[in-house]
Batch of 2 targets.
Target 1
Amino acid sequence: MTVLAERYKLPEEKQDKLQRAIRLEWLTIFFLITITIVMYLAMGSSQAMKTAWVEDVLSLIPPISFLVAMRYRNNPPTDRFPYGFRRAPLLSFMVAAVAILVLGLYLLYDAGKALLEQHHPTLAHFHLFGNSWDIWSGWVMIAALIYSVIPPVILGRMKLRLAPGLQEKTLFADANMNKADWMTAVAAGLGIVGVGFGFWWADSVAAAVISLDVIKDGVTNVKRATSDLLGQSPTDVKSGKQLGLADKLSEELGALQEVQDVGVRLREEGHVFSGEVFVVLSSSGDTARQVEHIRERATALDWRLHNLTVMPVTTLEK
Amino acid sequence: MRERYGSFWYAAVFFMLPVLLGTGCERFPRDPQHSLKQVQERGKLRVGVVSHKPWVTGNAPGKPGGIEASLLEAFARELEVEIEWHWGSAQEHFEALKHYELDVVAGGITRSNPWRKEVGFTSPYYVSHAVVGVPQSGERISSVEGRAVALRPDSGLHHLLKERGARPFKRGYLENVDMPVAAEAWEIERLGLRKTDITLTKRRYVMAVPSGENALIMRLENFLMQKASPGRVEKLLAGRSQE
């Protein structure tokens, strides 16, 4: 058995779900692009609309990084990168998360500045491509906001249903961001209606609220990317609780006849778990064969265990 | 899952409620600083004008003429108020507008004016094109490359002609020059020249109101949409040539 070039394969039934998730993400990108266009055309001089628009553009990042990850993370290892490329998407996600955070802070600054300078947003007739329409631009903005809510909320729900089964973190984060999108739209809508009622500050306040949501997204994603890159112990994507998989593995392997003592250390590596199993073997048989057997048993315990190293030792220091 | 659906519908209702309220109101959107209401209570529309032919003509302290002045007179009639004219520089007027000391500023302001961030601009009510004109009897041209073209020294068109490879000649007056002329389309017509397809730039004419006074700007835009259609503005521009 050669371990060096082993490639990770999803179980069959998960493969199906993953294909569905990929289709949903493509749909998400398509709708987000139409949304950013509609929002841009309706934006006018409203700070809240501008902020909501930036958030819509930013929400393109998770689906894109998910699809890029799907494309590249299973590339076979090379001489130069013998551990494969499973962590490459994590790196790009970290960069994107920092960008979201910084942009969120900037949007908050922008909204705060508009508030301090008492910027009164001018929302007049809707004007597009050189034509004025006999309708208040605020109504058009609200219509655009309503459109911006519907596809992400529906797609977000569908993705949320898939995410726990697949344990795909990017998918989960993306679905959650989509789901929270309606709050942004409500905030922006209230800001615009507020302006309509003569409260000039409503626009900037709404923008500030939305920027806080962007900052929250940024912080969540930076945290997530950090724990991914540090190789945290296997964790459930939904609850964020540790799975206790290492303990389960020790228990399972400790019950084996040939194992006297066992110590397990696992880490997340992208979407799979790897790590080391240290064993004290009880009999002095064919060590290599025993180790391979232990390894097979261990890997069978969870579908995401991959590239486990089983290391025979004389004693364990715990 | 059920509770998430619940919150979604709350959001939908939350959205619709103010919308319905809003449409039920007599005047929507409203002015944060009540400009339109105050104009009507005061019975006076305070208009800042900057001399800029042919949009606003005349001098302080007289009554201004020009297209925008006459449009604003009609607007005041519609509001059943009088006009209080204020002559001054654009800088002074925009400062005053920022502090709600004027209601409207006019004087051939275009949308590219950098004050657009500080005050409220209406949608452009008229778009004029700067074009190249040639004598009615002269040859038709499709390019100004390598040609001598006359223009006013302060027309802002010099660099645009340069970009197109023309040799611009600045002239104090454009009457009876023996070369193509670059100017606003209405001026080309006034000069009795024939317009070519060579368009140098577009200028989008707007009027300014205090920033965020949305009832006032909606009312003014409504008026401009109805009474200052491009056709009508062109008629006014052509009418001036008989003056």
Target 2
Amino acid sequence: MTKAGIPPVTFKRIATAMGFSPMAKANLAEVHRIAKRCEAQMYVFHIGEWNDRCETTYTGFLSELGIPNSDVVLVCKQGDPKEELRSLCQENSIDLLALGALVRENMFKVFTVSIARDVCRKAKVSLLLLTHSRLEGMPCERIVVNGLDHPKTLDTIRTSLWLGSKLGSKELFVVDELSEKSLIKPDDDKSQLNSTRKRKQIEREQHSRIEGLLQNCQVPVNLEIKEQHVFGKRGYTIAHYAKAKRADLLVVNSPDTKLRFLDRIFKHDLEYILADLPSDVLIVHTTKDTSYA
Amino acid sequence: MHKPSSGFKGFKENWQADLKAGFVVSLVALPISIALALASGAPAIAGLMAAVVGGVVVAHLGGSYVTITGAGNGLAVVTLAAITTLGNGDMLAGYYMALGAIVVSGVLLFLLGSVRLGVLADLFPTSAVQGMLAAIGIIILAKQSHVMIGILDPESTAPIPLLLEFVNSVEALFGADAGTWKTAGIGLFSLLLLSVFPKIRAQWVHSVPAPLWVVIISVAVQMIGTRLTGASFFPEKYLVNIPADWMSAWRMPDFSGITKGPFWGAAVSLTFIASIESLLSIKGMDRLDPYKRRSNVNKDLRALGIATALSGLVGGLSVVTVIARSSVNVSNGAKTRSANFFHGILILVFVLFFRTLLTQIPLPALAAILVFTGYKLLNPSQFSRIARIGLEQLFLFFFTLFATLVYGLIMGIVLGMLATFVVQVFITGSGLDMLRYFYRPNTLLYEEDEQKFILNINYFANFLNYPRLKSKLDSVPTSATLIADFSNTQFVDHTVMEHLSGYIELFEQKGGSLELVGLEAFALSSSHPLGVQSRSNRTKPGIQRARGTSQAHQLSAKQEKLSEFAVLNRLKYTAWPPSKWDQLVEQFNYFKYRRIDYTTNLLRDLEQNFYALEVSSHSGEFIMKDSQHLACIIMEPQIANLPVFVLDRERIFSRLAQYAGVKDVEIGNPSFDAKFKIKGPKPGAIRAFFTRECVDFLLEHPDFHMESNGKSILIFHKERVASVAEFKLMVSFAREWAQRMAIQSATAEEK
């Protein structure tokens, strides 16, 4: 793969779902800001009946936020929220669906996350879950992106680099989650030494792998790239790391398997992140086949 | 200190020292092994065989260094129960069936070690384990107190009725014959000797351990008495019985019950208690090892399993690691595992060549040793210590103790765990969360810098999820610096705090350090540094109250170290400064979007006008609440022309919208400009402020961030709470920086 091999994943059409939750206005502002930065067309989807009250609130929001009506394409549809959102994304060939996660009540969070789950397994769209939308806007300074040894990772890192350059980010942590199973379990002083040696060796190998990945990407000048190898449970570890490092955005691969009900009880990978959103989360939908080619 | 070599080389180097230690230990082990065999309801030889097989096998295959193996206290209780239930009243048949169970339990122990379940012993709450051990003490004491005063078969079998029956036994004594009186006399004398022994001043007395004195004196009484009277001084039934044909009397263990429940119940209980007793002893001995070697517990478990199975085959009891004999081993200069080997071999020599001498030991003397052991296990002086840690711990201790006495060992510890869980749910008021996060990971470990690790703990840490925390702690080299950050944790229980204090010791021994940070708010509501640390609803008013008054509060370990540091460095320390300090912090842009919850750990330097403190703040509310804890320094330099600026390397400040558009100020030093970004409204004033002294100094210490608001400067290092070492670093940075600024302002005035 050469440097010019595949173009980075870019977001040309960004959509958001409009509910009339307390955070609706802040979400609208946030998504508009992102769309502007990415030079993308913004869509607003509304599932349900569009009555006069909706109309007045909506136009009120737009004028208060200073968003010209021409910037936004509003699409309304009636039906099941999950189904319709998915079909709307498909019809309008949306690249990125931004959902304002939660607030106020746990129920709402559950709802957003369940849409997220549904969309990410069925629709061919990247997903952005916003947790910290604010009217005045928070700069996205620090991005944490996963650096797993996986075919999708390259696209994910490319996307995060591209988005980072658009949003003016300053720091990017490539977090490489490694399985603790590959380490020797230390029992005494000697095995501890061996374990440390093994850990260092794995870290060196992974470092050169990530180095190779980054060589295939266009790294923006102003973005400082850091690498962190963390041993622990996949999915959980990166979420905890993003929280500990106070990241503004966490970028992860889309899941390989369909998330079923059992996965929510025996959590793994993405489910850990969805259960405890540490920051804004971007789930990158790649064009890559999920099967290891 | 030169560590003893391993293998044959170590044996060649240290065999004299190990032989001496092994000899002393074998003298102690001899009476104790016989006594424990009798307490188990097994023939005397069974206890000795456990010591012989244990010594020989574990010394070769084990993973610990100075431990001694043999028959154990806790096991005596389980074995007695196994023999009684399996034999249905027939003690001899029961004994052979119990041997079968012992062989099976050996196999189970080996399997436990093979699948690395050495961590299991850490899963039990500390207070419950202490309660169970105390109950074992009572069970031993209840039975043996009768034997000690010459009543060989009391009517009751359960521990509590046995204790009550003791009064009857004493009454019966008054009407008894001279034979019984003699035996009661030697038993009571032995007990008296054991209890006053530590208080005897004469040095020569202590050259022989107390249990051996008991045996020497009682055997002397028996032999002299026999010589004088012509007949056996103590009646035959009160003497240890090792038949001359003990070797040829060997029989295969009875495995006939292997298909039935009681057999497996016995095998599982034996395995369970053997592993707990061994693992606790191994851990205890690691702290006593003069060479600070770390034992491989899983390897030791495997060795103990093999030894137990072999011991069962030759008619011996389960082999466990025993702490009392091991500590005798260490204090007599043992260096390697060969001491355990010598102890086993020497016991075999005693049995083979001094059998007749052993049969002269009167049972009441041995029972006295057991009564004393039982009392030491109960250890009433620990009650007040546990009560200081927390009344709920005392409750759990007694709850487990009585549950064990009434329902047996396994049921006792299970009930103890349940009670601990219920109490913790009650304390935290969030049982649902505890169940929800029970199987979910909650720890993050990463290497922040070379040899510096950060361990971040979420949600809660208690005995249920301690194994996960332990595996993270174990994977950090003990020579490294480890900071365990609890600022996102809601609840830490006594078991975890106790284990952590063990790890702190371990890291210090190996030249590393483990520091617990983020526990300040906990310290206020907890009664003891090792007690339950809960960020419950009570904490917040606790902080407000603490901040309102100037009286002394309960301090966390970190706070105590900080106050010590303050005294030594001409600083003034306040653990909970009043709320006016919040306002001082609030005026900086960094906190513009954050609400200050409280400040803590204030260190004031009154000469140079700077303050070091930790600030807890949050942004967002309710479930979006995002708490942050930050250690920082605030300086109020007495200079007229302090410009407004922000300086940082990791670009933390530029996230503040106010500075988003402002261009960087270039100082003129290329390496400085490449490394740092300075922003501010008046470039001229900033350039004048950053003189050569300041620039050089900052190049040497590039990890700090600064914000000046024209009156004072906010400086911090990492965006998290700091360890004591990091506090020291910040203070020394501030001192130096204050000096540079003083020079700067002096030169400015000259101009």
